[in-house]
Amino acid sequence: MVEEANLMCSFSRLGADKLFIQQAACLGLYNLNDIMNVKLSKLKKHKDFTFTWYASMLNLLKEQGLLRRFQENQL
User: Given 6, 11, 25, 41, which is the most exposed site by the fewest CB atoms within 10 A?
Assistant: First the structure.
């Protein structure tokens, strides 16, 4: 399980690429905690949302052991 402190780490500290970080910032997301608390339905409606970025986000969550938790939060 991921420590709560790790949820507050910036994407750059987690090894995310620059484009992912820039797109996340346009969506108002700056760390894993932001992602874990966002509603996917709202995120998809944002003008800067892309499914390519979303796929990268899912990969990041998987790497951090948070994918299942994110999916459960969206139910």
Answer: 41
Q: What is the pLDDT of residues 40-69, one digit of tens each?
A: 999 999 999 999 999 999 999 999 999 999
Sequence spans of domains, the chain: 4-73
Beta-carbon contacts of residue 1 (< 8 Å; ≥ 6 apart): 65
H-type alpha helices, 1-75:
4-7, 18-26, 32-37, 40-45, 51-63, 67-73
For residue 10, the cross-strand partners are: 31
Give the end-to-end CA distance of the chain in Å, rounded to a whole number.
Answer: 20
Q: How many helices (H) and strands (E) does the chain have?
A: 6, 0
